[in-house]
């Protein structure tokens, strides 16, 4: 079959214990991380999802420079998020799209309970290689 359907609630959390410790401020970060691409068998681009309640970390502080130069598109599917892009606050509501190049240090916090984002990434000009 050339297509698959899934609900985010059905995509298991796949964060390995301790994986996020280097970057996350919250000790339980990663419990609501969903590797969408892995679950659906997507190999053409990276795609993950994360959910958090108000005041909780959505995206850990990082740039993608040392991780291969990946650019990312964040899609807020529910709730609202406050991103910081190189220290500049950027609020994104449900339906909003935020594109970030590899060198930008980014992070995000949920502003409402049930905030969910989809993260899509890839390296410009290179074929995608799943990690």
Structure summary:
The chain has 131 residues and is mainly beta. The chain has one helix spanning 36-40, and strands at residues 33-34, 46-52, 57-62, 71-78, 80-85, 88-93, 97-100, 106-110, 115-122.
User: What name goes with the CATH superfamily?
Assistant: Jelly Rolls
The helix-and-strand class reads: mainly beta
What's the SSE pattern?
A: EHEEEEEEEE
Number of strands: 9
Q: What would you note in describing this structure?
A:
Strands 1-2-9-4-7 form a five-stranded antiparallel beta sheet. It has a four-stranded antiparallel beta sheet with strand order 3-8-5-6, with no helix packed on it. It is globular, with a radius of gyration of 14 Å. The two termini are 24 Å apart. A hairpin with a 2-residue loop joins strand 5 and strand 6. The protein is mainly beta and 131 residues long. Helix content is 4%, strand content 40%. The protein has one helix at residues 36-40, and strands at residues 33-34, 46-52, 57-62, 71-78, 80-85, 88-93, 97-100, 106-110, 115-122. It contains one helix and nine strands, in the order βαββββββββ. The longest helix is centred in the N-terminal third of the chain and has 5 residues, at 36-40. It has one domain (12-122): Sandwich (Jelly Rolls), CATH 2.60.120.10.
